[in-house]
Structure prediction request, 379 residues.
Amino acid sequence: MKQKLTSILALLLLGVSFSVYASPAKDRSALIKHYKQILPDIKFQDYIYGALAMNPDAKSQYESFMEFPSYSIDLDKGKSMWETPFKNGKHFSSCFKHGGKKVAGNYPYFDNASGHVVTFENAINACLKKNGEDELKYGDSQMGLLTAYARSLSDGMKVNVKVKGKGALAAYEKGKEYYYKRNGQLNFSCASCHVQNAGKFIRSDQLSMMIGQASHWPEFRGGTDIVTLQKRFMQCQKNMRAKPLQADSEDYNDLEYFLTYMSNGLPMLTPVYRK
Amino acid sequence: MAEAMKMRATMEGDVVDVKVLIQHPMDTGLMKDKKTGKLIPAHFINQVVATLNGKTVIDAQWGVGIAQNPFIGFRIKGGKPGDKVAVNAVDNLGTKFDGEVVVA
Prediction:
């Protein structure tokens, strides 16, 4: 009898511990369900357009701009950075699978050896370091222009971030915690706007849904200002009157890991125009 | 400068839609160099002429209000595929920028 009770107790405890251990896949399905509820007219495939999916006039302006983007001259700078050989004669393409084509969707990934999240920009700098070149500053326009071109080689690829293993899951959970944590003078979390109030207006801007956000970075904001995803984190935190962190900080990398995972299955497009 | 101008000309119904992007610093002459503290001299495109098969369709005088790497888009009535659209720009230092495209 005592053994039966203990085994029932053990099963109960096991059941509790399983439900506490969130699954990224479950989180993602729950969020998709949430957005289907609050924004029923927006198709999943259109989440990559964010606020543009909710405003046909803005979307048509975006499409007409993208036909012949005025940032194409700046993008050429990124192209020449990618194609110029290092002092040792090698190219960036030697550091990536398929020469850099259709790979960006796999980033960020969790590196079990180092115990850290590795972003695409980390990989770019690792490539520079490996070939005896100076690394680029994270969030800077040089890194922005280079990755704007480098990531464009993966256009059309579906975001394919994996969260497997204890270390990866812990980093994912940290990113998720940061996303849902309130901070700053306005006491907002990322979720306050982009989960709970997606579709509503904050001053004159419509809030985009979180799913679909990470698939199209860096962006040329206003057509001229190249902004990387983590630079955008900094800008947004400043707008929320919170102290921004540094690009490539552990928190931002975990946040990028979480955010990009949430956009799994959506096609990438880099760079894009936003106002 | 051959690469300094990017052009596209396509038919939109019965009108030719032309989009031109010119690479140019468009310095106003009012900004200071952060390192030396000296004024960066004015260097901007001040004339843009666009032609359709040699006939002038746009003759514009630009000033310092136009931003770096200027973009100009315009529509020409009466154009058809195969026509040549040419854009010739001159800046205040006399440098010329020319581009030509065939209507798609």
User: Anything to note?
Assistant: The interface with chain A takes residues 6, 8, 19, 21, 23, 67-69, 71 of chain B (CB under 8 Å). The domain at 5-102 of chain B is CATH 2.60.40.10 (Immunoglobulin-like). Chain B has one domain: 5-102. The two ends of chain B are 24 Å apart (CA to CA).
